[in-house]
Amino acid sequence: MWALRAAIVSVAAVFLAVIVFLLFAWRSEIPRDASAAEADFAPELIAKGAQLAALGNCIACHTVPGKPAFSGGLAVPTPFGTIHSTNITPDRETGIGGWSEAAFERAMREGVNRQGKHLYPAFPYDHFTHVTAEDNRALYAFLMTRAAVKAEAPKNDLPFALQFRPILAAWKLLSLESGEFEPDTGQSEAWNRGRYLTEGLGHCGACHTPRNAFGAEDRDRHFGGGEAEGWQAYAINGNSKAPIPWNEESIAFYLRNGWHEFHGVSRGPMAEVTGNLSRIPDSDVVAISTYVASIMGDPTPERAERAKGLIEQFEGDRLEQAADSQSSLISASGGHPGEAIYLAACASCHEGRRRQPFGGLNFALSTAVNAPNPQNIVNVVLFGLPPADGEASAVMPAFQHLLNDQQMADLLAYMRERFSEEAPWSGLAELTADTRSGEYKVTIRPSDGIERAPHNVGAEEEL
Ligand code: HEC
Ligand code: HEC
Ligand code: HEC
Questions:
Q1: Where is coiled-coil annotated (predicted)?
Q2: How far apart, in whole angstroms, are the C-alpha atoms of residue 287 and residue 187?
Q3: CB 152 within 8 A of CB 91
Q4: CB 129 within 8 A of CB 178
Q5: Cis amide prior to 357 (ω within 30 degrees)
Q6: Nearest alpha carbon, ligand 3 atom 36
Q7: H/E stretch holding 256
Q8: How far is the CA of 103 from the centre of ligand 2 (A)?
Q9: Ligand nearest to the CA of 459
Q10: pLDDT, tens only, 10-47
């Protein structure tokens, strides 16, 4: 009797909890706005929206390469499965043509679509939630004036439980800090602007911050290094492994131009980011750099001292002398199995006299050889850096058909030993084999930067 009563009470409690949760998770539909796609927007507002959309990298996620811009359908891989971006052109049936500005703003702020469905955080609304109403208006004006395209996104590939969208309300309760930032009065105006752009539309942390078991960014390891599209997004905080520490000037130069003398060109998903950032105002790039440099902090005296030596070696015309002295260094070092491969396949470009962004970076300057794992080197070496369509770009041949897994492992071990003081990497042949087989769904994009480099016209000639 007691057992029966207890069972009834617990079933009722569970039932009640489910109802309370569903009520909590429920969001109303915002009715279609029949005239939304025809509204008149001031040209200045649209132009501002275009810049903000570039900062938000909307086009990269919402466009399948070769398909119309913003028409969605790109597969965004997550540790939980594949989520497809949706069509954000003003098509009335398959896009956001019927969305009012309020519906758009709710999607950005709360990750809820017009129909009232919770959206997956593969759409980085955990960052976009900080965007002001004014900037959302400009973005809305920009998107509503794009060409309408009819295109339906493919079905997502997710485990059964995660297909149930109300569960995302629980995720938001745990992980979403919504709303605009209060300015930090202890910091400069540029820093506050930089924080707004970096943590908001720029969503740098979506790639550069590691994620916890729920797929949310781990705030205690802010900018500590994450992943994107099969690439490592290096640490850009105090743990940065760049041999010459980044500072305000070098970050601004890199974000604006897509390359830096001491760091090389931007590659993989970062190429898309710097390509887009070249379109935002200078003052905003400077603000982002002010903020990011403050997160990185000053290097330890030891690191600064080591960097000074490298700068003396590689700055400007000194690269030539460095190239000479290195060749002799190589002939002196003895018999690592990866050495012969390095000398035959890599040294001519990576220790040559061509300066950035045209030549290969000297690995003494490379973050990649100092990173916790060699994923980015494996990606670049296997798949190369393909030329950009119709523009000059830094090009590197692909070695996937020339080097087998063991040769790759030897090469990587040699590079780690010669160019870095970090502990050796392990599992190199396996990592290469898995990357080769497509296990990590590495996206290959042309590198960025050459089109904005000095003397671009002569990109093909020896400098
Ligand atoms: C990192 C990839 C990524 C970026 C960058 C991104 N989005 Fe998305 N977005 C997505 C994905 C994935 C979805 C689908 C989410 C879902 O189905 O739950 C989405 C959904 C949306 C939706 C909801 C559409 C609908 O019909 O439900 C809107 C609106 C939107 N994005 C606007 C934008 C804007 C504006 C930007 C740039 C400021 C942007 N997105 C940048 C990945 C991205
Ligand atoms: C879509 C993912 C993504 C986003 C968004 C992103 N990054 Fe990156 N970032 C990467 C990847 C991947 C790399 C490594 C690229 C490579 O190997 O060249 C990288 C490299 C960098 C580097 C070079 C680090 C080094 O030591 O070489 C800096 C600096 C950087 N990002 C800053 C930023 C800033 C600032 C933002 C925001 C405005 C940002 N990133 C947004 C993916 C991203
Ligand atoms: C034909 C010239 C050429 C050859 C040969 C070449 N590279 Fe490159 N490599 C480049 C260029 C150009 C870039 C882009 C500029 C930059 O950022 O270094 C690049 C970039 C890279 C990067 C990214 C830079 C970094 O440190 O993060 C890595 C890693 C790399 N190459 C590894 C190799 C290895 C290993 C070999 C030999 C198996 C090799 N490359 C052979 C031209 C070349």
A1: none
A2: 12
A3: no
A4: yes
A5: yes
A6: 346
A7: helix 248-257
A8: 31
A9: 3
A10: 888 888 888 888 878 889 899 998 887 777 899 999 99
Half-sphere exposure of 377 (CA within 13 A, CB side): 25
Residue 460 Cα to chain centre, angstroms: 29
Is the C-beta atom of 360 inside 6 A of ligand 3?
yes
Q: Is the CB of residue 394 below 6 angstroms from any atom belonging to ligand 3?
A: yes
Cα distance between residue 367 and residue 262, in whole Å: 10
What's the half-sphere exposure (Cβ side, CA atoms, 13 Å) at 127? 24
List ligand 1's pocket residues with C-beta within 6 A.
53, 56-58, 61-62, 76, 83, 85-86, 88, 96, 104, 107, 113, 119-120, 122-124, 139, 201
CA 80 to chain centre: 18
Model pLDDT for residues 173-204, shown as the tens digit of each residue: 999 999 899 999 999 999 999 999 999 999 99
Atom of ligand 1 nearest to the CA of 119: 18
Domain layout of the chain by residue ranges: 35-150+160-175, 226-458
- pLDDT one-digit tens code per residue, 210-265: 999 999 999 999 999 999 989 999 999 999 999 999 999 999 999 999 999 999 99
Gap between the Cα atoms of 157 and 212, Å rounded: 21
Are the C-beta atoms of residues 451 and 395 closer than 8 Å to each other? no
C-alpha–C-alpha distance, residues 460 and 458, integer Å: 5
Paired tokens of 219: 């705030």
| Alpha-carbon span 138 to 201, nearest angstrom | 13
3-state class of 82 per DSSP? strand
- Tell whether ligand 2 has an atom less than 6 A from the beta carbon of residue 273: yes
Rounded to the nearest 10°, the torsion over CA 317, 289, 254, 428 is 100
Contact between 274 and 450 (Cβ < 8 Å): no
**pLDDT grade, residue 460 (50/70/90)?**
very low
Residue 264, phi then psi, degrees to nearest 5: 85, -170
Token representation of residue 123: 């759409």
d(CA 94, CA 148): 9
Which residues are within 8 A (CB) of 73 and not within 5 positions of it... i.e. 6 or more apart?
Answer: 64, 67, 84, 85, 87, 151, 152, 153, 154
3-state secondary structure of 77: strand
